[in-house]
Amino acid sequence: MNLLLYGAPGSGKGTQANMLRTHFGIPHIATGDMLRAEIATGTELGRKAQPILAAGQYVSDDIMIGMIRNRMARPDCEPGFIIDGFPRTVPQANALDTLMVELRKRFDRVVYLKVDVDELLRRLSGRLVCPVCQRTYPPATEACVVDASRLVQREDDKPEAVRPRIEIYLEKTVPVLDHYRAAGLVSEIDGRGTIEEISREVLAAATSSPLARKSRPKAGEGAGADPAPTQTANR
Ligand code: AP5
Ligand code: MG
Q1: Distance, CA 9 to ligand 1 centroid (Å)?
Q2: Which residue has a Cα nearest atom 34 of ligand 1?
Q3: Is residue 5 lining ligand 1, measured as CB closer than 6 Å?
Q4: Which residues contact 12 (CB under 8 A, 6 or more apart)?
């Protein structure tokens, strides 16, 4: 199962990727999480990326393509993967096409979570994250359910970064959707509704591909029998 989650900042990609990761037992490759890990550990890339993320801008295509290439070469991706946050530009989409051919893989589905701008602003302004494990939580949650850390606001969820993030998404990332629509891969999901309601639609879309249907586990078998996610930990 090879899935790509597409949507604006705050559309619920991380939330739904967490559900899919548990359901299918495949890795969640989130370029934003990878960059935040570089920042947290103080690598050279992290030092370069920190002000770019804080301003709501995009890290360069070369860096991002190199990062995804290295990650997808790892053996845990062999049974499948869920990509979240890449590609964000048309050159990144073209590079990913080339990489998929090299790896002899193809996407089963591109799941587009469509959410209007007012709702995106509402979600991002209230989102909380665990500074230790990066799990995402809805507003008013007090502590991380996994490590009890006090939750914080993500640096790029501060008001001065949120608008630029949405603007660059509209300018550079919306054209990426046409790239996948042309390939007939896109399932568009109305992102309004509870997390559980959206999860049901995402799962239905993910398993709607003819390829996915062939390899789908039978009821009670392996990861396919997993229950729906909870609202508390979204990552
Ligand atoms: P990244 O971390 O990918 O951020 P993003 O795309 O802006 O998306 P978010 O993580 O903010 O939102 P999400 O869609 O995951 O929503 P979530 O599930 O958390 O990237 C960060 C930065 O890294 C970029 O700005 C850029 O600088 C850089 N970067 C990364 N990849 C790059 C690339 N390829 N090229 C260049 N630069 C790159 O949900 C949000 C909130 O809503 C949560 O509180 C959640 O609980 C809540 N929620 C979710 N679903 C629902 C629902 N159905 N109803 C109500 N609330 C909900
Ligand atoms: Mg995310």
Answers
A1: 4
A2: 86
A3: no
A4: 113, 115, 123, 191, 195, 198
Which residues on adjacent β-strands are paired with residue 28? 82
Q: What residues are annotated to the active site?
A: 13, 88, 127, 154, 165
Ligand 1 atom 21: residue of nearest CA: 32
Distance 220 CA to ligand 2 centre (A): 30
pTM of full prediction above 0.70: yes
Nearest C-alpha neighbor of 4 from the set 102, 73, 52, 72: 72
pLDDT in tens, the chain (235 residues): 999 999 999 999 999 999 999 999 999 999 999 999 999 999 999 999 999 999 999 999 999 999 999 999 999 999 999 999 999 999 999 999 999 999 999 999 999 999 999 999 999 998 999 888 878 888 889 899 989 999 999 999 998 999 999 999 999 999 999 999 999 999 999 988 999 999 999 999 998 865 444 443 333 333 332 223 223 333 3
